[in-house]
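Incident review: delayed structure delivery

Summary: a single-chain prediction request sat in the queue longer than the usual turnaround. Root cause was a stuck worker, restarted by the on-call engineer. No data loss occurred. The affected request and its eventual output are reproduced below so the record is complete for anyone auditing the incident later.

Affected input:
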Amino acid sequence: TALATALVHSGFKSNSFMFLGFLPKKESELLRSIGKMKQISKIEKETVFIFYESPQRINKTLDLLDQNVPSTEVVIARELTKKFEEIVRGSPNELKKRGYKGEITVILRL
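Output delivered after worker restart:
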């Protein structure tokens, strides 16, 4: 699956991770999900969060991450195991400046 491949490529410790599927579309619910991730990471500091995102919503999600957890480490894995596979790393601010196509898996360490 994309989540396992993305986790391996991320370089993050994989002792503890949480797969969230697709995050909510509504901004208020997405902000609530980010808040829950922040709470969990305070208790389980090594937890890595993995979720799928669409190319149409990725920049909005990165913008909200930049506003709420700007120091988070982000890995975007795109088109895994396909011809145009791409792995990019950086802060939400750095990564929201790019354009993304295809299937996207996001890995966060808050």
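Verification: The first helix runs from residue 2 to 10.
Action items: add queue-age alerting; document worker restart procedure.
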